[in-house]
């Protein structure tokens, strides 16, 4: 059994010796570990830890349009970041239903009614960069409210049919002049349907769309996972307005009781507080389980398909504080068993965003013509998340001297040759640490450790290991421990 942190672990009391009338000094206690790793076997009475999930997807890219309206592709940069999946949302509209099927009065069975040129280019760029495609069916951000293009009542059946033809296209079953190299594993039905910027036909009409499309996809592609609806970050503050009515109306929809409806539930969070990410995961797991528990699909995945800090007006996303906040959020998402994640977003999708620290991207564009990009601090942190998630999935218990409530976050897993630990320090103070290894109460030695990190100024660093190590306030570290 491990000893509690910050309780002196003294050797058995030595007999007092008198030499020349002086009492011999008792030996100094060993240094406190600060970080203690324990195997699941050392805590047999606790619930199993959720496995490490591949929470390394992004929205948009690697294709984007520069200021000269030239198509650019940042595939090498996505590979370097370790991006594993791309959600097809908010990058100049190539996947919007209204862009692919622009005339809602057109014949949905006629290939000439569709324009897949842009979306196919973007899709193939995602595949070429080694990423999976997470196909969002919906519309991009629309300002002002009321400008989103949706069907009238007389166009409704045409539009529903067109949505299914888009799904067929990306499964190589419709209008494929160039075959799709790999079909999507997931189809997400809409983005932020509870916002009138994306859906202004009311919740009843959305439930019609959602259920009928799910049923059509299930009938043709039973292996394709489908869900949604990408709830806004604010939906959690007013669940009785959209979230709970949506689930209740889906469950009550005619024919749903005999059909699979949810393979996943998707939602968004934009916040500076990592706790809110865990609260959202718990809420949607509990609420969805309670409200759709009577359906055949009682087991479903949780997907956070957009997340970042709150709207940024300064340099937070380019500095260590932003990297630490989002790393802490990523750790919380892992702890709460979230299955898929898509950070918002991969690249600032307009060259004019380059040099704007508050833009959302992990990458900023320095010079599109020269293919010059730069990772923001959050981008460098994302690369550390990817390294952590790329190997084994078996987690270790980890205890720290300052807990998450105090602003210190840690996640640990087994690696092929030892262990990996990722740390985020949101406290106001630098923290010294050593690591006590599992099953043996041995402190890791300097020669066992390799450390990478993001400093408070947002710079990537590989500090020299000298124990005890220090993680500065508002910074991130990835620690590899050899056995």
Name given to the CATH homologous superfamily of the largest domain: Glycosidases
The percent of residues in helical segments reads 10-25%
Percentage of residues in strands: 15-25%
Strand order of the largest sheet: 21-20-23-18-17-16-3-19-22
Named CATH topology of the largest domain: TIM Barrel
Largest sheet: 9 strands, mixed
**Mean pLDDT, as a whole number?**
89
What is the end-to-end distance? 21 Å
Summarize the structure.
The protein is α/β, with parallel strands linked by helices and 483 residues long.
Describe the protein's topology.
Blueprint: E1 18-19, E2 22-23, E3 34-38, E4 57-59, E5 63-65, E6 71-73, H1 75-81, E7 85-87, H2 97-100, H3 117-128, E8 132-137, H4 156-169, E9 186-189, H5 203-220, E10 225-231, H6 243-252, E11 264-270, H7 274-292, E12 301-308, H8 320-335, E13 340-343, E14 363-367, E15 372-375, H9 377-389, E16 395-400, E17 408-415, E18 418-425, E19 431-436, E20 449-454, E21 460-461, E22 469-471, E23 475-482
Helix pairs in contact: 4-5, 5-6, 6-7, 7-8, 8-9
């Amino acid at each position: 059994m491990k000893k509690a942190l910050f309780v002196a672990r003294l050797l058995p009391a030595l007999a007092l010796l008198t030499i020349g009338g002086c009492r011999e000094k008792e030996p100094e206690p060993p240094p406190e570990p600060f970080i203690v790793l324990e195997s699941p076997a050392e805590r047999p009475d606790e619930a199993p830890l959720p496995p490490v999930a591949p929470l390394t997807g992004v929205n948009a890219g690697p294709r984007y349009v520069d200021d000269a309206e030239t198509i650019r592709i940042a595939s090498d940069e996505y590979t370097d970041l370790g991006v594993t999946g791309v959600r097809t949302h908010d990058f100049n509209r190539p996947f919007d239903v209204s862009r692919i099927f622009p005339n809602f009065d057109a014949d949905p069975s006629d290939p000439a009614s569709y324009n897949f040129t842009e979306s196919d280019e973007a899709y193939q760029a995602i595949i070429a960069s080694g990423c999976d495609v997470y196909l969002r069916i919906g519309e991009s951000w629309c300002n002002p409210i009321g400008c989103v293009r949706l069907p009238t009542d007389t166009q409704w059946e045409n539009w529903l049919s067109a949505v299914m033809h888009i799904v067929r296209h990306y499964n190589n079953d419709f209008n494929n002049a160039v075959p799709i190299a790999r079909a999507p594993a997931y189809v997400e039905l809409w983005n932020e349907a509870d916002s009138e910027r994306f859906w202004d036909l009311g919740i009843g009409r959305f439930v019609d769309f959602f259920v009928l499309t799910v049923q059509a996809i299930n009938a043709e592609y039973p292996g394709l996972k489908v869900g949604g609806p990408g709830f806004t970050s604010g939906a959690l503050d007013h669940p009785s307005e959209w979230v709970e009515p949506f689930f209740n109306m889906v469950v009550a929809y005619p024919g749903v009781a005999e059909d699979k409806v949810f393979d996943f539930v998707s939602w968004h969070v934009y916040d500076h507080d990592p706790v809110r990410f865990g609260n959202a995961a718990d809420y949607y797991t509990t609420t969805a389980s309670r409200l759709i528990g009577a359906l055949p699909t009682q087991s479903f995945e949780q997907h956070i398909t957009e997340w970042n800090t709150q709207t940024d007006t300064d340099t937070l996303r380019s500095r260590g504080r932003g990297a630490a906040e989002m790393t802490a959020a990523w750790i919380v998402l892992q702890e709460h068993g979230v299955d898929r994640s898509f950070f918002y977003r991969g690249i600032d999708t307009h060259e004019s965003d380059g040099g704007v620290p508050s833009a959302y991207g992990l990458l900023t564009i320095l010079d599109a013509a020269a293919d010059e990009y730069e990772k923001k601090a959050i981008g460098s942190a994302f690369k550390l998340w990817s390294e952590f998630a790329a190997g084994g999935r078996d987690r270790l218990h980890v205890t720290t001297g300052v807990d998450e409530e105090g602003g210190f976050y840690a996640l640990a897993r087994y690696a092929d040759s030892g262990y990996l630990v990722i740390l985020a320090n949101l406290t106001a103070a630098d923290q010294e640490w050593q690591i006590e290894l599992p099953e043996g109460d041995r402190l890791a030695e300097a020669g066992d450790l390799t450390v990478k990190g993001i400093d408070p100024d947002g710079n990537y660093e590989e500090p020299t290991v000298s124990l005890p190590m220090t993680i500065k306030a508002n910074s991130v570290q990835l620690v590899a421990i050899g056995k």
